[in-house]
Amino acid sequence: MQEPEEKKIALELLETEQAYVNRLHLLDQVFYTELMKEAKTGKTVPEEVVKMIFSNISSIYQFHAEFFLPELRKRMEDWNRNPRIGDVIQKLAPFLKMYGEYVKNFDKAVELITAWSEKSPPFQELIADIQKRKVCANLTLQHHMLEPVQRIPRYELLLKDYVRKLPPQSPDRGDAEKALEMIFMVAKHSNAAIAEMERLQNLWVVYQRLGLEDDIVDPSNELIKEGPIQKISTRNNSTSEKYLFLFNNMLLYCVPKVIQVGAEFQVHLRMDVEGMKVRELKDIEFPHTFLVSGKQRTLELQARSEEEMNTWIK
After folding, report:
1. For residues 266 and 271, what is the distance between their CA atoms, to the nearest angstrom?
2. I want to staple 251 with a disulfide (CB 3.0 to 4.6 A). Which of 54, 232, 271, 274 is the partner?
3. What kind and span of H or E run contains 192?
4. H/E element holding 164?
5. Is 307 exposed, middle or buried (0-12, 13-18, 19+ CB in 10 A)?
6. Domains, the chain, ranges and CATH?
7. Side by side, which strands form the sheet with 250-256?
């Protein structure tokens, strides 16, 4: 008799989980443990660096090895009597939020491995040594570390497939659909963690360009738009090159620095967004001009095109 399609997928989930736990074992019990042991002797890298590289891999490994894999295995052995995995996956899903921390840290971890391999030959040698072992299958530490990043999307794909192949009257339908929804939410949580990390990194780069003025540096700020602009001087009918940074709460009116040592811009004026008014000016001599008036003062600005002016106004 042909195995039902949904059972094949459930078995594939079990097989990939077993292989995944082996990979986690390699990361936690081999790489992390051995690098940590060497770090404690003080000859390779600081212990802190090893901890930063591997983030919370130990918790992830223990969860899969001691809880999820055994539960899944038990369920598959009992499949003929109780053909379902939806409830087991529902127990798994909330714990997958632990991946947020690991995923968020991944790029930093890879950078640290590269930097310390250059700085500390013994560190590099130890990694190369472990990578030569049969268990590493000729793959690098970085390659193995990517596996947890890819695991949640893999669960999502397998479970989608499983739900699709379930017969309409299957006793697992309700549970499996709920489990899929939970996994989907966790994947979103993990993506949100990455997006937040990128937002903070980009924000930090902007703050560096502005010379890290302490009254401006705030992690909750959101950069909405930046770009060059012409400032119109009504006094002598001329324009000069300026640069704007628009945040959710303030507009920074800046002057590009001629000698770019450290900061790229000097903040000339900071305007609160609250109470700010913006309107287009119909000026024949200076096209694409708009007026920004705030509590602090009013600026007459000229964009390079009508499209650019409209984007700023919006």
Report:
1. 15
2. 271
3. helix 173-209
4. helix 141-165
5. exposed
6. 5-191 (1.20.900.10), 216-313 (2.30.29.30)
7. 265-272, 250-256, 238-247, 223-233, 298-302, 289-293, 277-281
Residue 233: DSSP 8-state: E
In contact, 46 and 39? CB cutoff 8 Å: yes
Residue with tokens 């899929």: 180
- Token match 């939970």: residue? 182
3-state secondary structure of 49: helix
Question: What is the average pLDDT value for the chain, to the nearest integer?
Answer: 88
Distance (Å, whole) CA 267 – CA 249:
16
Lookup: tokens for 182: 């939970």
Residues 6+ apart with CB under 8 A from 153: 187
CA distance 99 to 188: 11
Q: By three-state DSSP, how is residue 234 classified?
A: coil
